Amino acid sequence: xxxxxxxxxxxxxxxxxxxxxxxxxxxxxxxxxxxxxxxxxxxxxxxxxxxxxxxxxxxxxxxxxxxxxxxxxxxxxxxxxxxxxxxxxxxxxxxxxxxxxxxxxxxxxxxxxxxxxxxxxxxxxxxxxxxxxxxxxxxxxxxxxxxxxxxxxxxxxxxxxxxxxxxxxxxxxxxxxxxxxxxxxxxxxxx
Length: 191
Description:
The chain is built from 2 helices and 10 strands; from the N terminus they run βββββββββαβα.
């Protein structure tokens, strides 16, 4: 019998590489924000974007990580086409950082940018600096406007490269390890 594991328990890194596993919550072009709930092992509707807004690329989380907001690290994955909710993508991180203000509290809520390793058209960039500046501006604007619609403030505080992105993932993995002993939805021997 195969033992079932929830998606939060998958490893952050793909094999022994610097590529990351990412679980898609909201595919590119989607008008809905879904959030994976490990207690139910289901994707729950979190928010419907206003008319004319959609996710510019695949948006999801990196398993076995937690960010300052208590959720897994978020990742926007550049790819040639949309996939589906729950799809596991392998992505090469290229970086970015931000902060968010919600209900008067400011905290880090990093948005990593990655490139799907299966991508053809978007496979070239190895850093944010190699992306077309218009795409970076549009991504930042998406997160700013998305959060404004939810009465939150999102402020890009820098464009960091792959080393900063990998450091955030490692820090997120340590936070995940620290929390898994106290959370009932994540078994202590999950990875």
